[in-house]
Amino acid sequence: MTKHHDERLAHIAVSALIEELALAPKPGLPDPRDLTARATGKDHQALRWSARALEPGLTAMAAAARRAGEPTPLLREELGAIGRCTEHSVGLAGGGHRGALWTLGLLVAGAALDPSARGAEVAATTKRIAAHPDRKAPRRPSHGSTMAVKYGAAGARGEARAGFPHVCRALKAVAASRKAGATETQARLDALLTVMSTLRDNEILYAAGPLGLRHVHAGARTVLDAGGTATTAGAEALAALDTDLHARGWSPRGSAGILAGALFLDALPAQTRSVVSQRRGSASRR
């Protein structure tokens, strides 16, 4: 891989995040059609702007992984340092996307380490990266650490150390919905609901506790059990869940970050095939 491919991976990742932001209706999450959200600075345009601020950091993560060549402890520490700097930059641009940065950063690094890998293979590579502790990470309380102590929730770090199982589930859900004839928007919403139906989302746990989390799980399953968002009953259940979660002020941001990771992996195949073919062509010319 080259610097161009590092930049390309970062661009694909940011595009995946922006595509996740554009989906609607996402239960409890910002709606790009909501003009009243502009008063809070959390409208779609503001979120898109801050998402763009991730691109330099994600490029640096891809470059770090490419240089390392292996998922070493030093690579894990370097990715953590880049991530913290990127989080600061995103904050200056408007904030948000912390969970997506964690997920996309590791997946971008995994894709850079193994350009021929796709889908679950990339997630498996990130598992090897996340297995190493970040010894230079600051020891300060967060929603994730609080929920880990209070409820034993694995959180984003647990997802990464397990090889992002919910990213893989979302990827399979997108493919299954497409095969069943759903539109691209419906397929992606079905994937989001698949994640929401089982993920121990720390944002929901923090806001509403275990009972609230079970409520979110049940609401997402109701949509899926009705046939998904491509059916009339499923679309009605989705609208009801969206209204309910917005009224309660519960936002499953962890699930949204997982979906962005799945959309990144979904967009990777053409890119990885291109990289591999270029490498083979270069080797044949030697």
Task: Explain the overall architecture.
By secondary structure, the protein is mostly helical. The protein has helices spanning 3-22, 44-52, 55-68, 73-92, 98-113, 120-130, 143-151, 155-161, 165-179, 184-196, 202-225, 232-248, 253-284. The chain contains 13 helices and no strands. It is globular, with a radius of gyration of 19 Å. The model is unreliable at 271-286 (pLDDT under 50).
Instruction: Specify the structural class.
Output: mainly alpha
Helix content: over 70%
Low-confidence stretches: 271-286
The percent range for strand residues is under 5%
Number of strands: 0
Mind summarizing the main beta sheet? Answer: none
Keywords:
286 residues; mainly alpha; 13 helices; 72% helix
Layout of SSEs?
Elements: H1 3-22, H2 44-52, H3 55-68, H4 73-92, H5 98-113, H6 120-130, H7 143-151, H8 155-161, H9 165-179, H10 184-196, H11 202-225, H12 232-248, H13 253-284
Q: What is shown here, in short?
A:
The chain is mainly α.
